[in-house]
Write a structure and sequence with these properties.
mainly beta
Length: about 140
């Protein structure tokens, strides 16, 4: 087992999700008070959930009874998937997605650059911002003791 695979096992708490501009500057993607958890098991499974802070509640108070606007906003402010993982090459994790709130990812593999320094994990992935601009996402995590 590689160092990355042995060091990544456990639960991680969300710190930040940023994107990198062409000029190298990082910008916050989700805003303040966002929360999340990421778990890697020794058995090769993983799951991640990230939620934007200060999400609006549905006026009805019912899980399946939001307005179109409420449902749209709820979808856009919660990110989750689960599946299995492996180290594709040194420093690159392959997440094989079994389920996701984004249906297009189910059955697909998403690659993440991964670096661990002490109790900090940084995952990176190329992405596309609303409007079609390509960028590099940087997600920071802290190990849960």
């Amino acid at each position: 087992m590689s160092n990355l695979l042995s060091e990544i096992i456990g639960t991680w708490s969300f710190i930040s999700w940023s994107y990198r501009e062409d000029d190298g500057q990082l910008h916050d993607y989700l805003g303040e008070n966002s929360v999340g958890t990421l778990t890697y098991t020794s058995g090769g499974t993983m799951s991640v959930q990230i939620m934007k802070g200060d999400r609006k509640q549905f006026a009805s108070g019912e899980l399946m009874d939001g307005t179109t606007e409420e449902i749209d906003e709820a979808f856009k402010t919660f990110f989750a998937y689960f599946g299995t993982y492996e180290e594709k090459e040194p420093g690159v994790l392959a997440h094989h997605i079994h389920g996701s709130n984004f249906p297009n990812w189910v059955g697909k593999t998403e690659e993440r650059g991964a670096e661990i320094r002490k109790d900090a994990l940084t995952l990176t992935a190329p992405g596309v911002l609303p409007g079609g601009e390509k960028t590099m996402f940087v997600v920071q995590w802290e190990r849960v003791p």
